[in-house]
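Sample entry follows:

:::
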Amino acid sequence: MTERHYDVLVIGDLNADIILTGDTAPVFGQVEKVVDDLVLVPGGSAAIFAAGAAKMGLRTALIGKVGNDTFGHYMLEALRGVNVDSSPVIVDQAIKTGATIVLSRGTDRAMLTYRGSIAALTEADVDRSWSQKARHLHVTSFFLQSGLCSAIPNLLAEAHAAGLTTSLDTNRDPNGEWNLGGPLAQVDVFLPNEDEAKALAGEVDLDHALEKLAAEVPLLVVKRGELGALALRGRERVEVPAFPVDTRDTTGAGDAFNAGFLAGWLRGLPLIQCLRLGCACGALCTTQMGGFKGQPTWAEAKAFITRHCNLRRG
């Protein structure tokens, strides 16, 4: 039997995030505005999740693609800095690394994304031998990865056949079509946020959306921002409130939640504890700029939960 060297194998996007804060609403017509701050931080849903999973004590590897450029080398160094194995990441001389300009207003943001390497990853780039080394496969950014999305159902099925459990976070569809085309049949844990769940189910009512999606996956986990999160597994429904924090930037909060939740789930914890871990990681992520810096370790997340639960009881 093949030894599983990794707890989580991640397939998805890694790109630079350039975050602007202050009065970030652009005005066309040659109008120049001055913003408060600019920071360059590691980004991409897969990279942010991988960083969070590694900080939570999971042995983590990432499959993705970057260009042989400044942003590409920056992302690889950032992953190594948080103990994510980036050796499966392909450095392609012919493409440019993707990047997102984030116009941040604390609890809200707008994003302008150049896909570049994000869209360039294809099924042929995914070395199947990595699936033999991991316990779990997490896939992100379904709609942004135009070169890979049609192959994702097959990759998830192959992971199941190799004995891995699987999870998926589609993120938003920039085209507004929300057509998955079948991957949920191979997903063990589906992790949309509330707006994504409604759009994917074609429902304006959350409960109707939950009913539809929960019928397709063994475990549905829905992120609700300031309202917390909920999980449905068969007839079991668990909800937890959000943790109050001073929010600076919401970039990567959903991916941080995923890392916390799956860190608990892969350890076999009850759903309510997994949800609390997810909410703690998501909340702490928002206290710093970008998706990497605010994410906690396992011990930090547990201490944060204990402190806030004691305050609520008090």
